[in-house]
């Protein structure tokens, strides 16, 4: 009986222990197994939060202190196939050698543009009020560093050169109206100034009572001295006549005919001769030639970012030297909006509801430029060397000449066209330009150089070719062969256009 009871008790104890063990495993073993994972997971999220918070603080501090974010360092530079891929959206079959007119924008920058546009459209209130100003300020800081300006307040982002010119000339018009300038005070410019700039001078300066001095120089050119000499003589002549020159408008790289102007020497002459303000029209500036505000020394400098620096239209900037910015010039954006009177950079930042995304992709364009060996300086040199080589090839093929020595060319060069084409007016150049585009898929600008009175010249027509990173040798061969075909077929502008 004892053994039976003992056995029963052992069974019961064993049963109870088994149940307790099962319960323990059910409730605690899983917790013990999962505890390291949960602990690690907790610390992972804690660490991630701290890293994210630190990154956000750093980013905010970067915006506040305007410290540029360092780009990722690539182990290799962009390849030819990658360049062609970036510009695969260009129209096929077109030999596009006219980058100087409207520029180009790579696919990676277009993608950034579209992302900014979507960001605006998905929540405009947040974008305009909470983000836009900081992003534009970031672009202004990048421009400041790019052009070696002294202060970010010297940099205002605008749509294009026409806007920049209007800002500068508008204050001149007010100076006449307020008696700061006198009737007959002058602006000096070169005859090859861009047409829209000439119209702005007419609209603001001449209409207000100003006098225009237009400096001529011969083309083709042999040296910078020809330009400097004509400019100096014009200033001395007007100064001798008692004329007060208030403003000089000088191209950095002229449009048509295309040549690099000796801006540093011309600015120096202006200072010596008492010209009060100097405005540099550098539509072909950043990305085409070296740009350094401290070296050039002008009061105003305006450059596009869409012609040679890979931004989309329309993005440009106006630099106003501190001495001009903080004077009594009263510089204002021509579009008056809510920020009127807060300074030119602030006025330019907000001109009403519009798409500001072209202003914001400058960091993306700069990242694209850094994919090239030597960055922007490397691109400038590559384009210059290539366009000179292609220019010489075309001049030899047509038996003509270059418009100026290679060291006076940037990423564009002028080549004389065969005289038998009969280019005898500006209308001829416009029609031949369209003819080459529509009939042959060749995109280039044409220039008419009128002979002086009594002068007999064989070459009156010049073609301006540009070279940008997407161009191929075949583009220039196509131009060469097209012109040769026109010559072979007996084409003349008089027969083709004037009798049509």
Short description:
By secondary structure, this protein is α/β, with parallel strands linked by helices. 52% of the residues lie in helices and 11% in strands. The longest helix is centred in the first third of the chain and has 64 residues, at 2-65.
Characterise this structure.
This protein is of the alpha/beta class. Helix content is 52%, strand content 11%. It has helices spanning 2-65, 80-86, 99-102, 107-122, 124-147, 161-177, 195-206, 224-240, 263-272, 293-296, 322-325, 344-349, 357-360, 362-369, 375-398, 426-440, 473-488, 493-498; strands spanning 95-96, 155-158, 186-190, 211-215, 245-251, 277-282, 300-304, 316-320, 412-416, 442-443, 445-448, 461-466. α9 links the parallel β5 (245-251) and β6 (277-282). The longest helix has 64 residues, at 2-65. The chain is globular and about 65 Å long. InterPro entries: Aminotrans_V_dom, PyrdxlP-dep_Trfase, PyrdxlP-dep_Trfase_major, PyrdxlP-dep_Trfase_small. Residues 1-18 form the signal peptide. This is Aminotransferase class V domain-containing protein. Pfam families: Aminotran_5.
């Amino acid at each position: 009986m004892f053994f039976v009871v003992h056995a029963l008790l052992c069974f019961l104890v064993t049963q109870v222990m088994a149940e307790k063990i099962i319960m323990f495993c059910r409730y605690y073993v899983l917790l013990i197994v999962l505890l390291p994972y949960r602990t690690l997971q907790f610390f992972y999220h804690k660490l991630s939060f701290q890293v994210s918070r630190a990154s956000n603080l750093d980013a905010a501090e970067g915006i506040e202190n305007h410290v540029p974010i360092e780009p990722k360092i690539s182990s290799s530079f962009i390849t030819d196939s990658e360049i062609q891929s970036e510009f695969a959206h260009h129209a096929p079959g077109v030999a596009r050698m006219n980058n100087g007119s409207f520029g180009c924008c790579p696919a990676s920058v277009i993608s950034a543009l579209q992302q900014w546009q979507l960001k605006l459209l998905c929540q405009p209130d947040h974008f305009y009020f909470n983000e836009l100003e900081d992003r534009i300020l970031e672009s202004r800081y990048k421009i400041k560093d790019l052009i070696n300006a002294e202060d970010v307040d010297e940099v205002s982002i605008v749509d294009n050169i026409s806007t920049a010119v209007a800002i500068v000339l508008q204050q001149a018009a007010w100076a006449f109206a307020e008696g700061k300038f006198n009737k007959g005070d002058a602006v000096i410019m070169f005859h090859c100034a861009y047409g829209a700039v000439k119209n702005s001078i007419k609209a603001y300066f001449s209409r207000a009572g100003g006098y225009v001095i237009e400096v001529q120089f011969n083309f083709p050119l042999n040296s910078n001295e020809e330009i400097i000499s004509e400019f100096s003589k014009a200033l001395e002549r007007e100064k001798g006549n008692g004329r007060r020159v208030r403003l000089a408008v000088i191209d950095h790289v002229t449009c048509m005919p295309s040549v690099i102007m000796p801006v540093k020497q011309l600015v120096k002459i202006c200072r010596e001769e008492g010209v009060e303000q100097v405005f540099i029209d550098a539509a072909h500036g950043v990305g085409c030639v070296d740009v350094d505000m401290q070296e050039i020394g002008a009061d105003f400098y305006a450059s596009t970012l869409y012609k040679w620096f890979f931004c989309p239209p329309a993005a440009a900037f106006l630099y106003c030297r501190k001495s001009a910015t903080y004077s009594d010039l009263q510089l204002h954006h021509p579009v008056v909006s809510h920020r009127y009177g807060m300074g030119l950079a602030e006025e330019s930042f907000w001109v009403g509801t519009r798409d500001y995304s072209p202003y914001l992709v400058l960091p993306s364009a700069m990242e694209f430029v850094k994919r090239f060996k030597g960055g922007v300086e490397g691109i400038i040199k590559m384009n210059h060397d290539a366009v000179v080589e292609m220019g010489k090839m075309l001049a030899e093929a047509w038996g003509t000449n270059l418009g100026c020595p290679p060291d006076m060319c940037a990423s564009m060069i002028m080549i004389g066209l065969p005289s038998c084409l009969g280019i005898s007016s500006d209308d001829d150049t416009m029609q031949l330009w369209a003819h080459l585009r529509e009939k042959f898929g060749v995109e280039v600008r044409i220039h008419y150089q009128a002979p002086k009175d009594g002068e007999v010249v064989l070459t009156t027509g010049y073609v301006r070719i540009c070279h940008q990173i997407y161009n191929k040798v075949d583009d220039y061969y196509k131009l060469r062969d097209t012109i040769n075909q026109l010559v072979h077929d007996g084409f003349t502008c008089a027969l083709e256009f004037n009798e049509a």
